[in-house]
Design a protein that fits this description.
The protein is of the alpha+beta class. The chain is 36% helix and 19% strand. Strand 1 and strand 2 form a beta hairpin. Helix 3 packs antiparallel against helix 4. The longest helix has 18 residues. It is globular, with a radius of gyration of 16 Å.
């Protein structure tokens, strides 16, 4: 095993946050130690703040994208200690994945998380859109997908 492949195996996903189209926190889960623990209130503030910043950054793009559509807004935020990747669905739901700064293929991971959400949350007849996610099948499949990457 080379040093680079060993390094890739050690990279981690710290946490996942899902924000509804109104900016409300509907799901939060930690997968790995490494980020400071936040209170529930802090996560609610983080969700609302990110939602507002994302909305503003969609209007900051100085060049119009092809077709005149809106910019995609803030997609990646990197620090020395973590990387935050945002994936926004067509309905406005945002998936925020916190990983190590050099985690490869974060876009692939976050899209798979969205697929799991679509399969186990959105297809659940008891789930109400934009409400907190409480779905054991989603939790179980999400853990099975993320944990082996740890």
């Amino acid at each position: 095993m080379t040093n680079s492949s060993l390094h890739i195996n050690l990279l981690v996903v710290f946490a996942l946050i899902i924000i509804n189209r109104a900016g409300g926190l509907i799901y939060q889960r930690d997968f790995h130690e490494g980020l400071n623990k936040l209170s529930v209130n802090d996560y609610l503030v983080l969700a609302g703040t990110f939602h507002g910043i994302h909305a503003i950054t969609t209007r900051l793009d100085p060049a119009q994208p092809p077709g005149g559509g809106a910019s995609s807004g803030l997609e990646v935020l990197e620090t020395e200690h973590f990387r935050l990747q945002c994936f926004q669905t067509l309905t406005g739901t945002k998936f925020l994945l916190f990983t190590e700064p050099h985690q490869p293929n974060v876009d692939v991971v976050i899209r798979r998380v969205y697929e799991l959400y679509a399969d186990y949350v959105m297809k659940n007849p008891f789930y109400q859109i934009d409400m907190p996610v409480k779905c054991e099948a989603f939790d179980r499949h999400l853990a099975a997908y993320i944990k082996p990457r740890q």
